[in-house]
Amino acid sequence: MNVSKSGKIYLIPNVISEGTENKVVPPAVLSVIQDIHYYLAEDIRNGRRFLSKLMKLLPENKRHKIESLEFKLLDKRTLYEEAVELMRPVKNGMDCGVISESGCPGIADPGSIIVKAAHQAGIQVIPLTGPSSILLALMGSGMNGQSFTFHGYLPINKKELIRKIKKLETLSESNYQTQIFIETPYRNQKLFETLLEACAPHTRLCVASGITGSEAFIHTMEISEWNNHKIQLKKTPAVFLIET
Amino acid sequence: MNVSKSGKIYLIPNVISEGTENKVVPPAVLSVIQDIHYYLAEDIRNGRRFLSKLMKLLPENKRHKIESLEFKLLDKRTLYEEAVELMRPVKNGMDCGVISESGCPGIADPGSIIVKAAHQAGIQVIPLTGPSSILLALMGSGMNGQSFTFHGYLPINKKELIRKIKKLETLSESNYQTQIFIETPYRNQKLFETLLEACAPHTRLCVASGITGSEAFIHTMEISEWNNHKIQLKKTPAVFLIET
């Protein structure tokens, strides 16, 4: 575990709501970007754009020109051997920043492979504080935060989806554990309606969308209440949580 | 869901490592504390101390005197009916800040009961970005962040603990899911050693302690490697993660 010559890898959370850089980004992030010249991003163009917004939060004499920074791709198609290759400059002493498309690198995104490669190479990994829609939704839900599971995406096929939802209800009941999942925005409404259909009347459902933004929506009600307050969900990223 | 007359409830993360207010607290938190005069805290003295550190990050003319702010207790003994009572001033138009002892209110702490009462009363809940040792540990572990479970504390009795650890290994294997848990600092070493004893040689274990602080430690290795690099864990809060 001799890491003395190596650079460090910094996990830099992105915003989860457009234009909130000046609200949710803590000083530690603005501090490290003054020293990093090598970035890995899920989408290079978006990575550059995010970093250029962060630079604007720094005093002019501390900013880097975005064109002077090196960006490389790290996405779900990145193989472990490629991740090892991407860590080579870090092994040789260069610091590296990892940027997700939204929220925290490594949580519901492809960042973990690079962290795995970093640990393997004895490179120090430094996760930085920032917004996570999953965590903020759980905080805002009022559901059990002493025990919870995040499942990522549920099945698309309706029969399988209903079966899965019922399984999550059982899990919540038997383990007293909040069950958290997400959906691609254009399927939000379908998932919401299937939840109302499949869950027991007393199961509590939280829908959290647009968190940290000006149109943030977080509501928790029993299924029977939701059935009396049916809503149209926006096509924005949402987190769903259930608890029996 | 008419919330027009009500105040709002803001969930304000605390630091997870001593003296890091100026690194991990984002601008949104410093902005809302300028308008809040009513706080709920797990420990009132610590709550006041945290807030007084935050005030020092504001320009002098924006600070409140800590003595001018009202603090009430919200801890694990708080009953739901008491939480409803604590929400009464908010229902009448006053904003409220909820502060945890460490990290995010409602995650592995007693905050969720007040959020439940807020939802029930139609009060808008606003979770704010801040450090979470669980989330930062998961980011920094390199383990699967597409699916994970947080279990809180494991059993203390050694036989039960070993049985539980083996169950978590099975869960990780069958669901391809990272298993996350915590321990009270003075039992860190015992848990660590029991993990080395109970887990299969190829199970990966991440130990994350002191995150966001200057002595942060995050390492992920297979159990067989840990057995060759046995360490003495400090008596500081730590998060443990396993993946098969």
State the main characteristics.
homodimer, 244 residues, alpha/beta, Cobalt-precorrin-4 Transmethylase, domain 1, Methyltransferase, Cobalt-precorrin-4 Transmethylase, Domain 2, 2 domains, five-stranded parallel sheet, five-stranded mixed sheet, 10 strands, 35% helix, elongated
What this model shows, in words?
The structure is a homodimer of 244-residue chains. Chain A is elongated, with a radius of gyration of 20 Å. In chain A, helix 4 packs across helix 6 (112-120). The first copy, chain A, has a five-stranded parallel beta sheet, with helices on both faces. In chain A, strands 6-7-10-8-9 form a five-stranded mixed beta sheet, with helices on both faces. The longest helix of chain A has 18 residues, at 158-175. The first copy, chain A, starts with 7 loop residues before the first strand and ends with a strand. The first copy, chain A, has two domains: 8-127, Cobalt-precorrin-4 Transmethylase, domain 1 (3-Layer(aba) Sandwich), CATH 3.40.1010.10; 133-243, 2-Layer Sandwich (Methyltransferase, Cobalt-precorrin-4 Transmethylase, Domain 2), CATH 3.30.950. With 244 residues, chain A is α/β, with parallel strands linked by helices. Helices cover 35% and strands 21% of the residues of chain A. Chain A is built from ten helices and ten strands. Chains A and B meet through helix 1, helix 2, helix 6, strand 5 and helix 7 of A and helix 1, helix 2, helix 6, strand 5 and helix 7 of B.
